[in-house]
Amino acid sequence: MRLAPLSLLLALPAVLLAQHAYTPADIEEGGRLFRTNCVLCHGPDGDQVPGIDLGHGRFRQTYSQAALVKIIQNGIPGTAMPPHNLEDFRAEIILAYLSSIATSGRAATGNGNAASGKAIFEGKGNCAGCHRVRGVGSRVGPDLSDIGALRRTAEIERSILDPNAEVLAQNRFYRVVTKQGETITGRLLNLDSFNVLLLDSKERLLSLQRSDLRESDFMKDSPMPSYRGKLSAQELSDVVAYLNSLKGL
Amino acid sequence: MLTTMTRRLTLLLTIAGSLSAQVTFDRLLNAPKEPQNWLTYSGNLMSQRYTPLDQVTPQNVKNLELKWLFQARSLEKFEATPLVVDGVMYTVQAPNDVVALDPVTGRIFWIYSYAPSPLSRPCCGRINRGVAIAGETLFMGTIDAHLVAIDAKNGKPLWNTTVAKAESGYALTHAPLIVKDKVIVGVAGGEYGIRGFIAAYDVKTGKEAWRFNTIPGPGEPGHETWKGDSWKTGGASVWVTGSYDPDLNLTYWGIGNAGPDYDGNVRLGDNLYSSSVVALDGDTGKLKWHYQFSPHDEFDYDAVQVPVLADINWQGSPRKVMLWANRNGFFYVLDRASGKFLLGKPFVEVNWASGFDETGRPMRVPGKLPSPEGTVIFPGNQGGTNWYSPSFSPRTGLFYIPSWVNYSSIYLSGKQEYTEGNRYLGVSPRSVIGGMLAARVNTRKEDEGYGAIRAIDPMTGDRKWEFKMNDVTDAGVMTTGSDLVFSGGREGYFYALNARDGELLWKTSVGGGVASGPMSYSIGGKQYIAISAGNSLFVYGLRE
Question: Which of A193, B134, B146, B519 could form an SS bridge with B178, CB 3.0 to 4.6 Å?
Fold first, then answer.
């Protein structure tokens, strides 16, 4: 009994941290950390390890938030869970991101047929006109060969319906106009004070000197069109199912 | 006969060599009179990082070519500025190998390898910024908080003094400063809840001569600026070399942030002498004056910049001043005899303070402090500038600052418990760009922050010109007697600008980020320019 107040005191800092209000940007950052550190074993929805569903707080036993932070940092000896070099706040925003999975809801799509989705991806949807999967398709957009291992179903669905909702820094498009009047757009590979490196729409690796350019800037919007209203609900489900099945080589 | 002559010649050369290799304190005081050498971290004790050498000019700088390079056997950042002393270059290969090189060919004379304790834990890289020399002895601070004296002729260690406890988070990363017969260092570790200090050691024996605690203890003035026991873990580290004024016999040092970095609630008060400059008696280490740039800092605004001393005509009268571009985004002019605040003006975007009261204390903007939901503060966590050496050219009268423009961070409030040897920060701020992925390739937008060299007129604080880079910079600046500015940046370019108008005159790719300051020397009537970048040291000279 005498120990109780002491443990309460010890737990206090962690409780204070747990009450920290996480901003959408924190949660987004937590998502990035999750994808970098956790997704390989736990899957994009956090439910890939049997008996564990990180997005819905289901573990093999009950843990406090502080204990989960320690597990992320120290791992669980004797299991496949390794330690991670993440400070408290970074571990906490991973947990904040995982909490957001539960509240952000599941994808609207479901019961899709991956084989049908592949046909739409390569046919009607013309997705392969920009995206590459396992060596087939264009390199102008992000390679999607492992998208199912990196992204949650809901996120894949959102990218199809609302491509501007999230564009990762490494996928931002860039537009230049040369002094001769030629307009070139493409994926920005490198930008420094003197040079711009692009993969242009014809998949050429270009190095342009900024002194030769009349205009140069990031493109405000993603070049990807929204497929809202262009695919039926079933077609959308099929494409999402196909993308979900892409787990890398 | 021939043998006798040879012996005489050898003897003469030996004597001449040994005489010239004695780096007396008088030589350090008069370093500008021997511009062929680079005798201290910043080139002279006024720390102007200005070379009077003028063989490389705005007209011929385009003819610079790589003469040699030294590849460090280290993947750490190469932050050291070499010394060149009477035909020998000395630099540090990270973490703590002193290397003596031929400054004409880059061939190695000797390497002294110091093995730091595995318990050392420098916050931000296992790096070192250079050595100091006195007599024929080199001095290096180590990441496990030792000060080592090394024979400049053969690289043999002469003495090794434990300055502080590495396992508590103390480290030495800057080049020491020689003042008379003492070698002065300060301790890094502001992210580990250390209690900072500056200490002087006898150059011959390594025995401690004096110590100045950068956080006053009980009974000392300034102690009341720390709530409770917070002074014991308040940081206030030192990790960039100070300066010295022989007329005033004062040595000046910039002091780092208070700890925990982002949680000021546990250390209510101004937290002296964190984020301050201190002027110490060169013989005793007694505090003569201080000026605090960022009272009660919660933004990691270390005042760890090189104190640049200049003798200028201030409002019609000659005045001994100190020029200081601070991490907090303000450019300052202080009277270095008294510490009087003469001028403070933002050199980048600043939103945490609106100006200064008549005493020179910054006026805080209400609400601009870490918060649970995050507060955007300009400049951000790395500051408007940082430890990167600025330069003052007595020819142009301008002050050149490696700057981070349009740069902010989101500061969050929150607590962290102190445990010895572990990081003690509070909650780390977040980048407005977000994510580690953004740093993978160089795709920064201008409104997300960019690097620049900004030339400031110290008389007014007004900007004369700016050289913009796409990415931010960790590179120092050197000016020359021919009105050139040398610098670099994270993009991996090393370049020369016209000191008068900032025009780009020459650039070369060094294949890795520049995180050091340029220096220059001359051998056999030929001027060389050296810069450490990536993992190598590059040396340039004019094409013949």
Answer: B134
